[in-house]
Write a structure and sequence with these properties.
293 residues; mainly beta; six-stranded mixed beta sheet; four-stranded mixed beta sheet; elongated
Length: 293
């Protein structure tokens, strides 16, 4: 082997490549991060530091390079196309149609502007679910001929028509005094029946009237003075509540916030077995009548 003086050449200009190198001689381009040498064929070759991913995470599966010349291949599966662009350095993965295409669900009263094959669209105005078929560029309804199950669009209640304004409307059955409503989900029936008047008996120092006391009796059976309270927006108008003092303790009627309670004399029962009647001629305005002190 002949003796050769090795000179390390260098450049700080990007793109510069040495014109010639002797065997064993190297050159460095610091701007490009490249190391040049003369290969066995007599050509100028380079070694460069390239930014790469050591590991690729594919849906929690780690793919790790085991050698510097390893190549990661992206393989298209069913109904998927993979396109690589060396100019823009991009990889495009898209659906190519078919029954197994993955698509989004879209909820609106108008269809999505750029649907893909298999995309679902639920029309929030009509309640119809459709799927997009790209071969014919059409939305195909997945619903039966009607947009919803068989339902009543209106209810006629003693000549009062109750209409549904949207497909999500719910009609409520609410029981009043002396009426009970029982629903059976298995038999799909609603039973409406009359009930006998009920009475509430309390023995404590106070009692607050409820909606179901309207038209009924409330008995105070206490040996100490006690108070019957009435809240605002609780009782129906023009339906009386009868309050009877059974015990020796005097019973009084008081209104809570938002109510006005008036009487011609007193709001307290006169004696044991006295009967008081609470009337509501207008909303939250109450009148006490009966055997007051």
């Amino acid at each position: 082997m002949s003796n050769t003086v090795i000179v390390i050449k260098k450049s700080l200009v990007s793109g510069n490549v040495p014109a010639s190198l002797a065997n064993g001689e190297i050159a460095i381009n610091a701007a490009d991060g490249k190391l040049f040498y003369k290969n066995s064929g007599g050509s100028i070759a380079s070694i460069e530091n390239q930014n790469t991913f050591l590991t690729v995470n594919a849906n929690s599966s780690l793919i790790t390079a085991t050698a510097t010349n390893d190549i990661l291949s992206i393989v298209a599966g069913n109904n998927v196309t993979v396109t690589g662009n060396t100019t823009t350095k991009t990889i495009t993965i898209s659906s190519s149609g078919g029954t197994s295409a993955i698509a989004d669900a879209y909820v609106s009263d108008v269809p999505p502007s750029s649907p893909v094959n298999g995309e679902l669209w639920w029309n929030s105005s009509t309640g119809i679910l459709s799927i997009y078929y790209s071969a014919n560029s059409v939305w195909v309804s997945t619903s039966p001929s009607s947009s919803s199950p068989n339902t009543f669009s209106s209810f006629n209640v003693n000549s009062t028509i109750i209409n549904s304004s949207t497909i999500s409307d719910t009609i409520y059955f609410e029981s009043n005094n002396f009426v009970s409503i029982t629903a059976n989900a298995n038999s799909k029936t609603i039973s409406i029946s009359s009930t006998d008047p009920t009475a509430n008996i309390f023995t404590g120092s106070s009692y607050t009237l409820t909606y179901h006391d309207a038209g009924n009796f409330v008995y105070s059976n206490s040996t100490s003075n006690n108070i019957v309270y009435v809240n605002a927006n609780t009782l129906p108008i023009n339906v009386p509540v009868t309050i009877i003092q059974l015990g020796t303790g005097y019973t009084s009627i008081h209104g809570n916030t938002g109510t006005t309670v008036v009487t011609s004399s007193s709001n307290t029962a006169r004696a044991q077995y006295s009967t008081l009647t609470l009337l509501q001629p207008s909303l939250n305005f109450f009148v006490i009548a009966g055997d007051t002190a």
